[in-house]
Amino acid sequence: MFIIRWDVTGSNEVRLPDRDADIVALADAFIAYEASLPPEQQLCITWLGPLRENTEICRSALSASSSGEVQRASASEQLKQELERALELLDQGIFSLKLRCSPEVIPPLLTRSNPPGA
């Protein structure tokens, strides 16, 4: 059984971005980081493939949402749903990294300390 203890007085904190493009960039960074590791150091996760697909869908929806008012409403709703799913998957990934690594090993992009929307 795993025992997880949160250090609420620690100096590290993870804040997921608020802006849509930043969420896609964070997903890209997470995927690239995992791909850069040797296979034995990669997380044993089944949702990395869906995260890749989700990131591509988000990227397409971001592009589509900026063209045409009618298309924009549909693409915006799809983007909202896909970004929510991306945040759930990223949250799982960051949690997995926190369980596996000490704080100094986690890449700086994944441990943003700036406030949301900054």
Can you walk me through this structure?
The chain has one domain (20-107). It contains three helices and no strands. The chain has helices at residues 20-36, 48-65, 69-100. The radius of gyration is 16 Å and the shape is elongated. Residues 111-118 have low confidence and may be disordered.
Features:
disordered C terminus; 118 residues
What are the SSEs and their pairings?
Elements: H1 20-36, H2 48-65, H3 69-100
Helix pairs in contact: 1-2, 1-3, 2-3
Percent helix: 55-70%
pLDDT averaged residue by residue = 76
Residue windows where pLDDT falls under 50 for at least 5 positions: 111-118
Q: What string gives the helices and strands in order?
A: HHH
Overall 3D shape = elongated
Structural class determined from secondary elements: mainly alpha
Query: Could you give the count of β-strands?
Result: 0
What does this entry show, briefly?
With 118 residues, the protein is mainly alpha-helical. The chain contains 3 helices and no strands.
